[in-house]
Write a structure and sequence with these properties.
Blueprint (H helix, E strand, L loop, with lengths): L1 H13 L4 E2 H9 L6 H16 L1 E7 L4 E6 L8 H23 L4 E2 H10 L7 E2 L3 E2 H11 L3 E5 L8 E5 L1 H6 L2 H12 L7 H8 L3
Helix pairs in contact: 1-3, 4-8, 8-9
C-alpha cells in the first residue's frame, strides 16, 4: 500500500493539484483505512528520502495535502527541473520493476504496472506527455532503457532491459534500496536480487 501511495502521490503532484484524503482512501488505501496514518507517514518518509519531496497537509480540517520540494535549486530552474524530476521518478520506478523481474520484463507487464500507477500508455499525461513515446523513444535514446523485439511473437512483443546509461548512473544496490524503502522491508528480503546487487557489478 505504501508503494502504491507513493506512486499515486508522485503522479498526482505532477498536476500540482492538492491531494484530498478522501481520494487517497478511495483510490489507494481502501480497506486498510485503520492504518491510514501509518501508511501516509511511511509514504511521506519515502518521498522525502528518495525524491526530496515533503508531504504537507495544507488544510487540516478537510485533510488536503501537497508535495513540496525540499531540494535546493537555482532561481529560474524551477519548471524544467520539476519535469526532469518527474521523469526521473518514472524512470526509477520502471528500472526497479525490470530489476525485480530478473533484469528483463515484457512490454505488456511494464504497461500493466504503469496502469496500476495511473500512468496510461497511449493516453496523454500532463507531465510526461505521450507516455509510450517517452518510454520507448526518449528513455531508449538516452540509453536508460534497452528495448528489443522478442523473436517469434505475433503481434510482436518487446523485452525491456536496463540500458548502459542506467547502469552507469545508478546501481542495482541503489534500486533495491529504493524498492526496500517503498515496501518497508530489508533489501535482503529478496534473496536473489540482494545477492546480485551486492555481488561484483
Amino acid at each position: 500500500q505504501v508503494s502504491e501511495l507513493v506512486q499515486f502521490l508522485l503522479v498526482k503532484d505532477q498536476k500540482k493539484i492538492p491531494i484530498k484524503r478522501s481520494d487517497i482512501l478511495k483510490k489507494v488505501i481502501g480497506e486498510y483505512k485503520d492504518v491510514y496514518s501509518e501508511i501516509v507517514n511511511r509514504a511521506g518518509r519515502t518521498l522525502q528520502q528518495v525524491f526530496g519531496l515533503q508531504l504537507v497537509e495544507i488544510d487540516t480540517k478537510h485533510h488536503v495535502y501537497i508535495l513540496v520540494s525540499t531540494l535546493q535549486r537555482a532561481e529560474g530552474d524551477n519548471l524544467r527541473q520539476d519535469d526532469q524530476t518527474a521523469k526521473l521518478g518514472l524512470l526509477t520506478v520502471i528500472l526497479s520493476f525490470i530489476f525485480m523481474k530478473g533484469n528483463s520484463a515484457k512490454d505488456g507487464a511494464v504497461w500493466e504496472f504503469l496502469r496500476r500507477l495511473r500512468v496510461h500508455p497511449g493516453e496523454r499525461h500532463e507531465v510526461f506527455g505521450d507516455v509510450r513515446k517517452l518510454v520507448m523513444e526518449e528513455f531508449v535514446r538516452q540509453k536508460y532503457l534497452d528495448i528489443s523485439p522478442i523473436p517469434l511473437t505475433d503481434p510482436v512483443e518487446f523485452k525491456f532491459q536496463w540500458g548502459p546509461r542506467a547502469a552507469k548512473e545508478t546501481s542495482k544496490r541503489e534500486i533495491l534500496q529504493f524498492v526496500a524503502m517503498i515496501q518497508g522491508k530489508e533489501p535482503s528480503f529478496w534473496t536473489s536480487q540482494f545477492k546480485e546487487a551486492e555481488g561484483p557489478p
